[in-house]
Amino acid sequence: SILVVVSGDVNGDGAVNAGDYGRLNAMLQGKINLNAVETFAANTNGDTSVNAGDYGRLNAVLQGKTSLTW
After folding, report:
1. Helices (H), 1-70
2. pLDDT tens sequence across 9-39
């Protein structure tokens, strides 16, 4: 089988939305852990870690200020 991971779709529901933003926020606050697939999707800026930069980029996407295309 093939697994397709959409950048920004942290919760894996097929859409990039506030649910993903909330899940990433919870992870950054130490409230939850992300699995490997969620972590890959959460790394929206393509660097080596999931951090506030990814949170900021996801926020900008949700506000329509940027996109997740590379």
Report:
1. 18-28, 36-42, 52-62
2. 999 999 999 999 999 999 999 999 999 999 9
